[in-house]
């Protein structure tokens, strides 16, 4: 897992966190199964999911490009509202925004 992002198929384990490149913001998946975005300078919560806390919850960047919190059974408790696009990734930006990048169009001219 990269330090500032979750790639497609990656899991953010309970108690784990990722930071913005400038280290001013962090995304933490709590040991109780909720996702929090913090201002890391003053440890203030600036965003969170509001799911029923349960130590069986998992935070997964799905291959579909959506971020989900789900129970061990697979029941989805929360999901990002972006459109589904394979290959998407989620990133904590230096401005405090947590963004899911999903490629929607490209020219396919890489290396030409």
Low-confidence stretches: none
Indicate the CATH topology. Agglutinin, subunit A
Number of strands: 11
Number of helices: 0
Radius of gyration: 14 Å
The run of helices and strands is EEEEEEEEEEE
Helix share, percent: under 10%
What's the architecture in CATH terms? Orthogonal Prism
Strand order of the largest sheet: 2-7-8-9
What layout of secondary structure does this protein have?
Elements: E1 5-6, E2 11-12, E3 17-19, E4 25-29, E5 35-39, E6 44-48, E7 58-61, E8 67-70, E9 76-79, E10 89-92, E11 98-101
Antiparallel strand pairs: 1-10, 2-7, 3-4, 4-5, 5-6, 7-8, 8-9, 10-11
Describe this entry's structure for a reader.
With 112 residues, the protein is mostly beta strands. It has a single domain, classed as Bulb-type lectin domain (Agglutinin, subunit A), CATH 2.90.10. Helix content is 0%, strand content 38%. It contains no helices and 11 strands. The strands form 3 sheets. The protein has a 4-stranded antiparallel beta sheet, with no helix packed on it. Strands 3-4-5-6 form a 4-stranded antiparallel beta sheet, with no helix packed on it.
